[in-house]
Amino acid sequence: MIDKESEVYKAVAFEQEILCQLFRPVSAQEPGEYMTATEIKNHIEMNTKHQIKAMNRLGNALRSIFGLPKSIRMNNIPIRAYHVVKVPQEQLTKFRMDPVSNFHPTPPTDNSFFEMQLALASNNDNPF
Q: 128 in a domain, yes or no?
């Protein structure tokens, strides 16, 4: 009970926020693709102005959102990859620069971020 109540006040890591803006879990309607943590990092850096310097924090955020990576073969080489869906470019939340208070995300037009957080909170055992 206390854990559920304290979860409301828990700070959301930057890495989790940016992952939820650029990716979403795989569903029956969207089959998704397998991406390594490095590919996800590169996608984040190419589509935002942010640089990911702490791969361990990104890895923790990836595991908390998408579960454990799956071992697959790419070009006959075994790798560990996350099954994700890239958010289409036209649906990305844009960042705007406010000279007084730095970066603030423009609020999303839908509740996809919050729905994803609720789904994750209710399904912590899901590896994917």
A: no
Total domains, the chain: 1
Is 127 domain-assigned?
no
Please report which confidence band the pLDDT of residue 27 belongs to, taking 50, 70 and 90 as the band edges.
confident
Range of the domain at 45: 2-122
Q: How far is CA 91 from the centre of its chain?
A: 15
The answer as to whether 44 is a domain residue is: yes
Q: Kindly state whether residue 21 falls inside one of the protein's structural domains.
A: yes
Token pair of 57 as six digits: 């924090």
Structure tokens of 93?
Answer: 């939340």
Average pLDDT over residues 57-72: 93
Beta bridge partners of 33: 84
| Residue 1: predicted pLDDT | 53
Is the dihedral angle over the CA atoms 1, 114, 81, 84 positive or is it negative?
Answer: positive
Residue (of 22, 34, 123, 125) closest to 78 by Cα position: 34
103 three-state secondary structure = strand
Of 75, 74, 93, the closest CA to residue 24 belongs to: 93
Q: Which amino acid is at 117?
A: Q
Average model confidence (pLDDT) across the chain = 77
